[in-house]
Design goal:
With 402 residues, the chain is an alpha/beta fold. The protein has one domain: Glycosidases (TIM Barrel). Helices cover 40% and strands 16% of the residues. It has 14 helices and 15 strands. The strands form four sheets. An eight-stranded parallel barrel has the order 2-3-4-5-6-8-11-12, surrounded by eight helices. A three-stranded mixed beta sheet has the order 7-9-10, covered by helices on one side. Helix 7 runs parallel beside helix 10, helix 9 runs antiparallel to helix 10 and helix 12 packs parallel to helix 13. The radius of gyration is 20 Å and the shape is globular. Its EC number is 3.2.1.-. Belongs to the glycosyl hydrolase 1 family. One of its GO terms (molecular function) is hydrolase activity, acting on glycosyl bonds. InterPro entries: GH (IPR017853), Glyco_hydro_1 (IPR001360).
């Protein structure tokens, strides 16, 4: 781990070279991702999604403006994803124009002093891939590896960190939801994840990691896991460990040979002797209905480190859905205090990327606003919030006031 260059007495210092940025996902900000499974799901007859993504933030055309703002605010890193459905709109048919588009984004980030972290898969797949059976089809792993190899012109130079798959445990959870015929987590907690999908995603990650290393051995490869921060009530320690393993830890264990692992969390899940316990009625809740709990990321980092062993950690998502930006600053203050404490305790944490750079499409609705930057849905005008200036300034000072 690199050493801090700031005066510790002034506050919590972050290490020299620490990644300091914000994250996005292609489907959530680009708009008109018409060849993806999610676009089809948004528009199919009887869709249960409240609203479609539509133009989203029009970032497919306005990515330069997004990067300009992040760089001007003081951020040094930007995590964005490549849309598989654009790169390979039909089986084996790769779009040179789309590959060039994403390469321009990499170059544009570098020109602005932003280090690009590229995610190869962030929830959406081409519609044709889904119709073949998705991740559990016989040739799914080979098809994903073929796509990863096709991204060589995009990630081959100028990129250091590559995320193969974002939150694979949430992908397996989505399959479990469909089998239950529900879009909402049951009151009793998260259902058991689909095991065939879990196994397939782990194989896909390992195969993709090898494919990325073939593109360039210098590329640092990992994947990001959704941490639910399972906290055991007295007497529920064994149940909590058993509950967590198939829903989270099995994916963390799969990263033991990776160059880094992405840690993502937003709130906690308390486990009692009879299973998950709802948050108290008087608990503050965010626009997603989650308990306001900024300390979650600290617990997630410590848990991930305990499971994965000697693998560097990067916070690849962390944030809050709120219409009150002062609560967003408070949330980030608490979250970053927990990150700083983990650093001081010796955890090898290499970066912090907030979710999200923009108010965007949150998988069915625009109501939950996670963004540091507001986006007008009609004009697409970008307006940085006070939290964006506050968080960006920390990128310049690298010191969180105590």
């Amino acid at each position: 781990m690199t050493t801090a260059v700031n005066n510790p007495s002034a506050g919590h210092p972050f290490p020299d070279g620490f990644l300091w940025g914000a994250s996005t996902a292609a489907h959530q900000i680009e708009g008109n991702n018409v060849n993806s499974d999610w676009w089809h799901r948004e528009h199919e007859e009887g869709s249960t999604l409240p609203e479609p993504s539509g133009d989203a933030c029009d970032s497919y055309h306005r990515w330069r403006e997004d990067m300009d703002l992040l760089a001007e605010l003081g951020f040094t890193d930007y995590r964005f994803s490549i849309e598989w459905a654009r790169v390979e709109p039909a089986p084996g048919r790769f779009s040179r124009a789309e590959i060039a588009h994403y390469r321009r984004m990499v170059e544009g980030a570098l020109e602005r002093g932003l280090r690009p972290m590229v995610t190869l898969h962030h929830f959406t797949v081409p519609r044709w891939f889904a119709e073949r059976g998705g991740w559990t089809s016989d040739d799914a792993i080979d098809l994903f590896a073929r796509y990863v190899r096709a991204t060589a012109p995009i990630i081959g130079t100028g990129v250091r960190h590559v995320c193969t798959i974002n939150e694979p445990n949430m992908i397996a959870l989505a399959v479990a939801f469909r089998e239950l015929g529900t879009e909402v987590a049951p009151v009793a907690g998260i259902p058991l994840l689909d095991r065939p999908t879990t196994d397939a995603l782990i194989r896909a990650h390992h195969t993709a990691r090898a494919a990325v290393k073939e593109i360039s051995p210098d590329l640092q490869v990992g994947w990001s896991i959704a941490n639910q921060v399972y906290q055991a009530e007295p007497g529920a320690e064994a149940l909590t460990a058993a509950y967590s393993h198939p829903r989270e830890d099995v994916f963390i264990e799969a990263a033991r040979d990776d160059d880094w692992i992405g840690v993502q969390s937003y709130t906690r899940t308390r486990i009692g002797v009879d299973g998950p316990i709802p948050a108290p009625d008087d608990a503050e809740r965010t626009l997603t209905g989650w308990e306001y709990y900024p300390q979650a990321i600290g617990h997630a980092l410590r848990h991930t480190s305990a499971v994965v062993g000697d693998v560097p950690l990067i916070v690849t998502e962390n944030g809050i859905a709120t219409a009150d930006d002062s609560r967003r600053v408070d949330y980030y203050t608490g979250a970053l205090s927990a990150v700083a404490a983990a650093l001081e305790d010796g955890l090898d944490i290499r970066g912090y990327l907030a979710w999200s750079a923009l108010d965007n499409y949150e998988w069915g609705s625009y109501e939950p606003t996670f963004g540091l930057i507001a986006v007008d849905p009609h004009t697409f005008e970008r307006t940085p919030k006070p939290s964006a200036a506050w968080l960006g300034n920390l990128g310049r000072t690298r010191v969180l006031p105590r």
